[in-house]
Amino acid sequence: MEDNKPATPCAPAGAPLIHAALCAVMHEVGAVGKLGTNKDQKYPFRRIADVYKACQQVFAKHGVHMVPTAVKNLQVESITSAHGTKGYHMVAIIEQRFYAVDGSFVTAEAIGESSDWSDKAGNKVMTFGAKNVLVESLCLPDEDPDLDGDNESPQAVVAPSTTEAKQPPLPTAPSEETKAKEAQARDLVLSYKKTGENPATILAWVSKQLGKVVTSSKDLTVAELDSLIATANNQAAKL
Questions:
Q1: Residues 140, 31 contacting (CB under 8 angstroms)
Q2: Under CATH, to which class is 18-137 assigned?
Q3: DSSP codes joined into one string, 204-232
Q4: Which of 58, 68, 137, 153 suits 52 as a labelling partner, its CA being 20 to 30 A distant?
């Protein structure tokens, strides 16, 4: 069966090898699927390990290697979580160079950004910057363009795995019980407002009753709403 894919490009005699070598890498690497899932916001993302795994052997085959050469415009900000944990938020431009075997190179830059509550913010900035450089420089798609167009959002598999990547759960509609409790909570807040209490005072009371910082009634569970309504009714009965 005839192979319709274009031949691997070759550099003209005397020309730097890096451009032809990178084109050859792009020709072979292909798609890198979004096999990771953020545990908090539940969105899929490309893991740096998958990007490296897709590129490493192809780079070696075509005599290309990547070297970090500079960190520019580094911005560091101290941050504090809602629970009082100290951490850092960092943003920087990460510069990388792609070298060929003849010493020729091209330079690429990408933004790296991260937050961490320990000592890993700098490592994450470098990692995310390197991933972004590879994705942008090699135009890595996150799904296989050769798959049938009738398929819905196909995800390319970079390497065989013994376990299937877990898909993020679909959001569920609030139950009638939850809607009723939220309505009761709104009525409770409105009744406090009628007494002249401002929203900040109400939220402070809610936070005190539950023993945690609450910024919105939407953050409360049904059990917490039940507890608040019962507490408010008991306090009202004593007036």
A1: yes
A2: alpha beta
A3: HHHHHHHTS--S-GGG--HHHHHHHHHHH
A4: 153
Cα 183 from Cα 163, distance rounded (Å): 43
pLDDT in tens, the chain (239 residues): 445 554 556 666 678 899 999 999 999 998 898 888 878 778 888 899 999 999 999 999 999 999 999 999 999 999 988 888 899 999 999 999 999 999 999 999 999 999 988 888 999 999 999 999 999 999 998 875 554 444 444 444 444 444 555 566 666 666 777 677 667 666 665 555 555 556 667 777 777 777 777 776 666 777 777 777 777 766 655 54
CA distances from 83 to 46, 80, 199, 218 (A): 29, 8, 22, 19
Residue 38, SS3 per DSSP = coil
Integer Cα distance of 91 and 219 in angstroms: 29
Task: Quote the pTM value.
Answer: 0.54
Question: Which of 29, 40, 46 is closest to 165 using CA atoms?
Answer: 46
Alpha helices for 14-137 (secondary structure H): 18-29, 48-61, 121-137
Q: In what order do the strands lie in the sheet with 65-80?
A: 65-80, 86-99, 105-116
Which residues neighbour 161 within 8 Å (Cβ) at sequence distance 6 or greater? none
**Alpha-carbon torsion angle 58, 62, 63, 69, nearest 10:** -60
Rounded Cα–Cα distance for residues 170 and 229 (Å): 30
